[in-house]
Amino acid sequence: DAHLDYALRASNQKIPFSAISDSDARTLFWFVDNRYVGRVKPGEPLMWVAQPGEFEVRVVDDQGRAAQVHLKVRLAS
């Protein structure tokens, strides 16, 4: 599993989610802790309102291919 650490400057800051997809993908569906948070076209970021904590972020394309990363979000000091 991949791991990412992200430092927020303020609570409720938006984090851009982006993924590289195959050319036949038309839609990317985003999930945080298995909860659907939105969809975008390939090449477009999904802006997610972040809170401090640890999350499993998953993206699935309309062909059923998926990728997942463990995300740790903290407030910058």
Description:
- The structure is a single chain.
- The chain has 77 residues and is an all-beta fold.
- The protein is built from no helices and 7 strands.
- A 5-stranded mixed beta sheet has the order 1-7-6-3-4, with no helix packed on it.
- The N and C termini lie far apart (27 Å).
Give the strand line-up of the largest sheet. 1-7-6-3-4
The percentage of residues in β strands lies in over 45%
Order of helices and strands: EEEEEEE
Shape from CA axes?
elongated
**Beta strands, count:** 7
Compute the number of helices.
0
Radius of gyration: 13 Å
Q: Uncertain spans, ≥5 residues at pLDDT below 50?
A: none
| Backbone structural class | mainly beta
Helix content: under 10%
What would the average pLDDT be, to the nearest integer? 93
Largest sheet: 5 strands, mixed
Provide the fold topology:
Blueprint: E1 2-8, E2 14-17, E3 28-32, E4 35-40, E5 46-49, E6 53-61, E7 66-75
Parallel strand pairs: 1-7
Antiparallel strand pairs: 2-5, 3-4, 3-6, 6-7
